[in-house]
Specification:
By secondary structure, this protein is α/β, with parallel strands linked by helices. The protein has nine helices and 20 strands. The chain has a four-stranded mixed beta sheet.
Amino acid sequence: MPAEWEPHEAIWLGWPHNAADWPGKIAAIHFVYGEIVRRIADSEIVRIIVNDSAHEAKARGILNKIGVSPEMVEFFQIPSNRGWTRDFGPIFVSTACSSGRGNSSTKTAIAGFKFNAWAKYDDHELDSQIAKKIAKKLKKQYFPIKHNGKPFVLEGGAIDVNGKGDLLTTEECLLDQAVQVRNPGLSQKGIEQVLAESLGATNVLWLNKGIVGDDTHGHIDDLCRFVNDKTVVLSRESNPNDANYQLLEENRERLEGFRLQNRSKINIEFLPMPEPLLYRGQRLPASYANFLITNSSVLVPTFNDPNDRIALNRLAELFPKRKVIGIHAVDLVWGLGTLHCLSQQQPV
């Protein structure tokens, strides 16, 4: 699996339609999506999943009002339950292929993981078919990922890779056998075997828990991300009385002891956490780590918070060749996810 900063052919999004994901906010969400599409389309194709022709027409109308170039957008009519494309969408991998006479090259294929709606929601029958349907439409090879004959459950937000064999994830998400169980009875060794065989991830780095408010039960993309081969950014809480403080410090201690595939230490940089955001008494998973890397930019969720500027500046230092752009995400995070959760890159 290539790193997210490697060249993209496109980025995939699912146009929002499930109003229950954003109670009372779905109209506003459409225009936030439009801004996300506009920014991505500055440097690459945006491939948008819609339910049908009427859904597509609505999306086109909004994008037209925002000024998105229509030649940079492609629509795919594939019915879905929700719009969290990072988790149910296609996970693209590079695979070697023979071109005859002893020559070889690489092409992209899709690793076919099972999606079970974070082992939490029942309505996922449409989402669980999307990756395979996209493979058919793109005429890409689709590899069903299994272990001991059983489909292996994995969401894109549960992992982050540097394209060199190193993969970040959390024990809370992939090893839990009590709360939101992805692969019942499967050991850490078994999971690492699957990740090596399907994604080329031969060095799995296990952090402990994800941030408070994350209903995926520990996704890495709200917590810690690779920004280059040797460097990660980790969310860090400065208030010792905050519920995230201790768990983020424990993850920092783990990272300091890890080694990369090449046996070198990891460079660790830090992103602040915004002040807690609440909805009906529930803490929302607001995090600057849920940024999206495009071919020309880094789109970063912002929260009307004093730490917005600090986070944007820190990421600008780490991505000197890309434009770092803040996207207002107070409405988005009501759906319990933001920019990275909504998207999935398709490498060249």
